[in-house]
Amino acid sequence: MKIVLALLLLISSVAMSQVKLTDDNNKSDIRYSLNPSGYHYVKFTFTNQVWFRLNDNNPGTTVLSDPASQTFDIGLRRTRLQLFGQITDRIFFYTQFGLNNFNKTNGFPGYNTAGTPSNRKVAAFFHDALGEYEVQRKGNSFIRFGGGLTIVNGLSRFSQPSISTIMTMDVPIFAQATADQTDQFSRKLAVYSRGQIGKINYRISVADPFPIETNGAVPPALNANSVFAQKKHKKQFDGLFIYNLFDTEDNTTPGYTTGTYLGKRKILNIEAGFIAQKNALWRKEGVDTLYSNMNLWSIASYLDMPVNKEKGTAVSAYLGYFHTDYGKGYLRYNGSMNPATGTTLPITGVSGTHGNAYPMFGTGNVIYSQAGYKFKDGLLGSQGTLMPYASLQYSDYDRLWDPVLLYNLGVNWLMKGHNGKLTLNYENRPVYKNSTLSNELQKDMRKGSWILQYQVSI
Asked: CA dist 135 to 54, 118, 143, 201, Å?
């Protein structure tokens, strides 16, 4: 990390006399021009998201071995540095370095790592490191090929989100289907092509997934329910196709899709995506080991446009349907930056049920929607404006007797667009317990979480 920071400081010092501050989507740029037109450039960005959270924990939750029905924690949800640029008319590179989910339990044995001793100083890593070559460009249409460690993949726009422009406080993580299982925080080693052909934006890739054994936790044991396989490793195929009815979206960085443009563009899209991998999961049936293909696909629509350009009001909305087939009985709990470390009331057949976790991933079907409204610019005078929002997730997974109904209500205080914003969010989630009647889990109660997020991004 010291080497990366030293390089960034060197670039910044060299470029200081040529720094350009531009305003696109209320986001300032720090860039060094490599030619007089500025088309060739190197750009640096920084984003930091701090969470202040009060969480009602799942029953039986412990924090560092102490019982905890409720927790208050402070953490870094995401801290990222990006360095990327257009070196020639055809050559582009992109790197991203940072950490995620850094709170007091980060690195705790059995939580984020499988071994001892624990180390809270090993969380930062390269998220992306890739190179691209543009083979064709005509107006706004282009075709590029690239490869490396990348988030370019399929399924949906929320499978590859631009985290600094999220409208809701956080993204629907279920859409990052293999997060930290066979990828590196949604990134994969892949070769890909992306481009804009008329009204159609596309990205397709062939990835070499990471073995489940290298994700830092003990892999789930082979059992009657599907889990990621430790043998018969195969390549993964991904694709996302977006039809732009009005304006085209920003295509600068590979894969990343904007959360909201805050009314700066008129966007209405229809999209469809998929992720497919042969023999991705396995399970035990009697004495036989059976393999399952992973087949995930989605269809969705995304709207983000101004209501009144003069006043600066805008709306943003998304509605998507996801079919998630991980194999028979697959179910995985997850909780964002989980504030807890264990439980005295485990649920049979699943792990990580403590803290704020809920059944996030599973075989079944998901409907996800979100909507927000940006009030006029200057609503709070020189202090910016507000953008309230709501999101709803309905997940009907095979292993659940009662579907997941998860909702979030919140408001963004946009001090300077996405550069500086404060978000207050309330999340309400279901809590499950073992069923005495079948392999399925039954809903027991509901729990909530209040989160205040402060984002600084440049």
From this structure: 50, 47, 6, 16
Instruction: Output the six-digit token pair for 377.
Output: 């610019």
Q: For residue 8, is it within any domain?
A: no
CATH (domain of 275): 2.40.160
Residues 285-301 have pLDDT tens digits of 999 999 999 999 999 99
117 preceded by a cis bond (ω within 30 of 0): yes
Q: Give the pLDDT confidence score for residue 107 in this predicted structure.
A: 62
Which of 128-142, 159-173, 211-225 is predicted with the least confidence, judged by mean pLDDT? 211-225
| AA letter at 228 | F
What mean pLDDT do residues 61-83 have?
96
**Contact present, 361 and 281 (Cβ < 8 Å):** no
Residue (of 91, 163, 94) closest to 129 by Cα position: 94
Tell me which DSSP letter residue 248 carries.
P
- Integer Cα distance of 67 and 158 in angstroms: 35
pTM comes to 0.92
CA distances from 177 to 144, 172, 213, 276, 362 (A): 25, 10, 17, 11, 9
- Residue-number span of the structural domain to which 407 is assigned: 130-457
Count of structural domains within the chain: 1
| pLDDT tens sequence across 362-387 | 999 999 999 999 999 999 999 999 99
